[in-house]
């Protein structure tokens, strides 16, 4: 019995959630996807997942935060750094735990640097 191919919606759901995997982001950066204008347009297109009718299907809603960060050229460059990757991963864990002292890796930080919050 052949399984049907996934729908475009299912593929996009799986892909956007993969953005919550920081090692995967690093892989995308190492392979120059984060410099490809077509790929960046695709990331922009995926913002429709912010709409409640779509967001309710996300198991890893933090992927929307990462999608926002990916709009920053500095973030896209910095994600290549192992230290920056660790900072982002630690930030995600702290967000999941709702702890104080979350590191802000938002694009509006100078040069994509991290700043302690709390």
TrEMBL record:
An example Gene Ontology CC term for this record: mediator complex
UniProt GO BP: regulation of DNA-templated transcription
Pfam families with a match to the protein in the record: Med31 (PF05669)
A GO molecular-function descriptor: transcription coregulator activity
Function: Component of the Mediator complex, a coactivator involved in the regulated transcription of nearly all RNA polymerase II-dependent genes. Mediator functions as a bridge to convey information from gene-specific regulatory proteins to the basal RNA polymerase II transcription machinery. Mediator is recruited to promoters by direct interactions with regulatory proteins and serves as a scaffold for the assembly of a functional preinitiation complex with RNA polymerase II and the general transcription factors.
Membership in a protein family: Belongs to the Mediator complex subunit 31 family.
Official protein name in the record: Mediator of RNA polymerase II transcription subunit 31
Lineage: Eukaryota, Fungi, Dikarya, Ascomycota, Saccharomycotina
């Amino acid at each position: 019995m052949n399984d049907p191919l996934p729908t475009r919606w299912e593929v996009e759901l799986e892909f956007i959630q993969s953005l919550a995997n920081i090692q995967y982001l690093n892989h995308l950066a190492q392979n120059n996807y984060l410099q490809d204008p077509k790929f960046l347009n695709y990331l922009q297109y995926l913002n429709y997942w912010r709409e409640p009718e779509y967001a309710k299907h996300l198991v890893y809603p933090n992927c929307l935060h990462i999608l926002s960060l990916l709009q920053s050229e500095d973030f896209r460059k910095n994600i290549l750094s192992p230290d920056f990757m660790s900072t982002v991963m630690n930030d995600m864990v702290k967000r999941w735990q709702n702890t104080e002292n979350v590191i802000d890796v938002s694009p509006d930080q100078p040069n994509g640097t991290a700043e302690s919050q709390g």
